[in-house]
Amino acid sequence: MKKQILIGAALLASSLTFAQKDELKAAEKALKSGNTVEAKAALDQAQSAAIADPKYAAQYYFLRGKVYFDMASKGQDKLTSISEAAKAFDKVVEVENGKGKYSVEVEKMRTEAINLAVKTAQDTYTAQDYETSFKAFEQVYRLSPTDTLFLYNASLVAVQSKNYAQALDYYLELKKIGYDGSEVNFVATNKETGKEEVFPNKSQRDLMVKTGEYVAPKEKKTPSKKGEIIKNIALIYLDQGNTEKALEAFAEAKQQFPDDSSIIINEANIHLQLGNKDKFKELMAEAASKDPKNADLHYNIGVINMEQGNMEEARAAYLRALEVDPNYLNAILNYSTSYINEGNAVIDEMNSLGNSKADIAKYDKLKVKKDDLFKSGAKILEDYMAKSGKKYPEVLDQLKNIYGALGDNENYMRVKKLIEQ
């Protein structure tokens, strides 16, 4: 009885083997005739038995990859088809250890699939279909994992499509694989224009130098993208409201790029959003020390100090911003406003006084102090306009308000006429 069962099992296995061979042949025949639907149906029938049998597994995955590649080539659910083809190609190489006949065929198809995915990514990007574009760039990378630039491209386009969750996944993967992104540019100076130009490769650059039209050939390495990737990870976490992970990402970025002021600025902005104004001010000062020529940094330090009532520190920061950029209009307006705000604080004190002789005497002294502060604010703006030779509407409006508050009717009317001109 036991022998009969074993013989029956052997017959069953034999019939399954013949069945899967027939189905694989049927799939192959359907593919040759261009009938991908029939080929896919035959492969679905053969799937479980073929995968379990090492003798037929490579052939099965090869045909599966071919079916999906043909579907992609015909535009049938292109990106999903490319993705399924890529998975099948990888399984062929895995089963054959990259040494069998199907592995060779698969690599040919892989190259064609890469070209198809690249074209899809570029065409859809040009058409501003960013969602399809970033998915296509991802498929190029999945087909050719050494071409990490395409995963980086996918991350950039995902941001353009505002799919920040997907962009975050790409950035995290780029970070995990240690993507650097720096490259060598081959440049030379155009003798006629005096400007440096970048060439596609060294050979072309050297050829143009030999013509005598270009001089000073050199290689320039572009900056690493690692800092940018970590910053973007942090910014997306921040956009998602995950401030804890955002701060962790910035802390990591600062360790890798301690002199990158933009990392410090972004970290500072998180603390500002969290209401940690002292930490914001501390970090902005740190960033300014690393990037002293950044007028915006000094300006923002001035703003936070003014909000906190530190007028002298605010004025010093605004003056530093104006040293870097003498035409920084908001800096000059806020520099003037710092005196107005201080004068307004004096008004509050004046209004709190009573009618006693001592209070009246104090009131008169405070009024002189207030007027002097307002006049200082006006002088800053008058000097700025005289030096620049321009009439800025914002400056004129602020001047008119100051002279109105001072009761200086003559200057008020003068500025009013300038506004109306």
Largest sheet, in brief, is: 3 strands, antiparallel
Return the CATH topology of the largest domain: Serine Threonine Protein Phosphatase 5, Tetratricopeptide repeat
Counting DSSP E segments of at least 2 residues, the number of strands comes to 3
Shape: elongated
CATH class of the largest domain: Mainly Alpha
Q: What is the overall number of helices?
A: 19
Strand content: under 5%
TPR repeats: 227-260, 295-328
Signal peptide: 1-19
Keywords: Repeat, Signal, TPR repeat
Protein name: Tetratricopeptide repeat protein
Describe the protein's architecture and organization.
This is Tetratricopeptide repeat protein. It comes from Imtechella halotolerans K1. The protein has 421 residues and is mainly alpha-helical. It folds into 3 domains: 2-176, Serine Threonine Protein Phosphatase 5, Tetratricopeptide repeat; 184-221, no CATH class; 330-421. The chain is 77% helix and 5% strand. It has helices at 2-32, 36-52, 54-73, 78-96, 101-126, 130-143, 149-160, 164-176, 202-210, 226-239, 243-256, 261-273, 277-290, 295-307, 311-324, 329-351, 357-388, 393-406, 409-420; strands at residues 184-190, 196-199, 214-221. The longest helix has 32 residues, at 357-388.
